[in-house]
Amino acid sequence: MTHRYENAKRIAALDPERDHLEIYQISSGLDFPWDYTRALEFALFRTYCVPSISGLLAATGEFRDRPQKRYDDTALLMAEIAAHGYDSPRGKEALKVVNRAHGRYAISNDDMLYVLSTFVYDPLDWLDRYGWRPLHVNERLGAFFYYSEVGRRMGIRDIPAGFDAFKAFKAAYEEKNFVYSGTNRKIGEYTVELFAGWFPPFLRPAARLGVRGMLDERMLSAFGFKPAPRWVPALAAASLKARAAGVRLLPPRRTSRLAVEPGNRTYPGYPDGVNISDLGPPPAPADLAAEHLRRG
Q: Where is the ER-bound oxygenase mpaB/mpaB'/Rubber oxygenase catalytic domain (predicted)?
């Protein structure tokens, strides 16, 4: 079964600063594609605990009117950058769409920096708990260096120079900014309903309960959600660990899952017939964009 760890051995032989893109592609596209997808879903969910972030999302109406499209757009754009590289033609086009969407509003640098930090550390925390193999230190550093480069191309300033310093920024930001607001709750409820909507109707109450069971105390407080019964997070953790034990027995994946979404809900068969420029929100109404620029 040693071949099951051939990707991990490849990662161990790479330099995390120089080869961060290759490391990230192997880890997120080959060894842990399902886990990265789930972890990034919850990473984005985590950012909605911040009133300045949830307030903007509530004002745009994207979560109210098109939650699935917004989710799919974000996931596909980030996957395009990872799959092809941030300096590739497709990666540059995806970054252009991301920057165009963000550039319409006066989003603070700290908010942008925080969202970037969740993309680094939340998947690593998930994989430490539920991954089918232990992470190599190069995977941790590779994720940091990869998203640092992505962040620079998004115009994010003052990205901490080290892995531990960026993690400390994330912790301090959450300590200061995770507070309850009505918009947190509103966007949180839209997101729970989005996740529940992926299941048949008879399973949706259980899915809603399961999502709440995956949230920590600070998130529950910021959303104003009632904690799930204690058995729910225990059952979820046991199920995810059982899944990891099963995945450990599978042969290594040979084809990357990055930016390959044939069952995508918004763009069936992606990437066939879909241009990267088709992704992202529609142009913002001039009065809404102006209001956020004024208030920012």
A: 59-231
Q: How many domains does the chain have?
A: 1
What tokens were used for 188?
């949180």
pLDDT digits (tens, 9 = 90+) for 146-189: 999 999 999 999 999 999 999 999 999 999 999 999 999 999 99
Stated pTM of the model:
0.92
As a whole number of angstroms, the distance between CA 33 and CA 39 comes to: 10
123 inside domain: yes
Alpha helices, DSSP H only, in 197-271? 204-213, 217-223, 231-247
Residue 291 falls within a domain, yes or no?
no
DSSP code, position 15:
-
Could you list the residue range(s) of the whole structural domain that residue 201 is in? 2-252
Report pLDDT digits (tens) over 214-267.
999 999 999 999 999 999 999 999 999 999 999 999 999 989 988 776 667 888
Tell me what the pLDDT averaged over the chain comes to: 91
pLDDT band at 32 (very low <50, low <70, confident <90, very high): very high
Question: 13, exposed or middle or buried, with CB in 10 Å at 0-12, 13-18, 19+?
Answer: exposed
Answer yes or no: is 113 within a domain.
yes
Q: Which of 6, 20, 2 is nearest to 253 (CA)?
A: 6
* DSSP label at residue 267: S
> Which residues are within 8 A (CB) of 199 and not within 5 positions of it... i.e. 6 or more apart?
206, 207
Tokens at 58, concatenated: 């509530």
Residue 245: other Cβ atoms inside 10 A: 10
277 within some domain: no
Q: What is the 3-state secondary structure (H, E, C) of 94-122?
A: HHHHHHHHHCCCCCCHHHHHHHHHHHHHH
